[in-house]
Amino acid sequence: MLTLHHLNNSRSQKIVWLLEELGLPYELVCYQRDPVTLLGPPALKALHPLGKSPVLDDDGQLLSESGAITQYLLTRYGKGRLAPDPAGPDATRFLECLYFAVSAGMNPVMFKVYARAFKLVGEPLDLAATAELEHALRFIDLLLGERTWLMGDLFTAADIQMSFIPELAKAVGAFSGHPVIEAWQARLYARPAFRRSIERGGAYAFAPSPLD
Ligand SMILES: N[C@@H](CCC(=O)N[C@@H](CS)C(=O)NCC(=O)O)C(=O)O
Prior knowledge:
The chain has 212 residues and is α+β, with helices and mostly antiparallel strands. It has helices spanning 12-22, 42-47, 66-77, 91-100, 107-117, 124-144, 157-162, 164-171, 179-189, 192-201; strands spanning 2-7, 27-31, 55-58, 61-64. The chain has a 4-stranded mixed sheet with strand order 2-1-3-4. Strand 3 (55-58) and strand 4 (61-64) form a beta hairpin. Helix 1 packs across helix 10 (192-201). Glutathione (GSH) binds at residues 7, 10-11, 39-40, 52-54, 65-67, 102. Glutathione is lined by residues 7, 10-11, 39-40, 52-54, 65-67, 102.
C-alpha cells in the first residue's frame, strides 16, 4: 500500500500529480504549514528524520526526497510509463532534468526564499540567486524550444518535477519574459491528472486552480 505524506503548498503536490498520472492507488495523509513560519507541523517532523514533505510510505518503507520518490515510483511501478526508453537517446536528458529539478534548479529559489526570510532582499546573495534562477529558467526554455514536453512528444515525470521551478520563480517574483515556459505551463495545468491532483491534494497556491 502506498501512502503519501503531503504538505499543503509544497513540492509534494508533484508526487500527488505523479501518482495520478500513473493511476496508482494511494492514501494521502495531509499536513498544513504553520501560517506564520510556513514550517511543517510536529507530526511531519516525527515521521522521518529529515522532517520534510513529501514522504512516501510503501508498505512501511519510508522514502523522503521528491526526486528519489519520483525515481522509485517510476522504477517500481512505472512499467516504462512517464519516462523515455532507458537505452534511448533521451535517457541522459531525462535523468539530467530529474536531478536538476531538485538540485541546481531549486538552489537559487531557496536562496531567494531565505533572502526574504532574513531580510536580505536586494543584497548580493539575493541578486546572485536571481541571476542563477534566470539561468535555470533559460535552461528550461532551451530544453523546451519548440517541443511540447521536455522530452519532445513524450510527457514524462521530468515535466512534473521541473514545473516546480517556474512556479516558485513566480512566487518569489523572479519570473518574467519566458513565454515558452508559460505555454508549457498551460499545457501542464490542462492535464486531467493535474486537475485530479488538486482535487485530491487540496488547493495549491503556485498554479492556477483548475477548479475555479
Ligand atoms: N529536497 C527535498 C526538499 C523537501 C522540502 O524542503 N520540503 C518542504 C516543502 S517544499 C517542507 O517540507 N517544508 C516544511 C518544513 O521545512 O518544515 C525534496 O525535494 O523533497
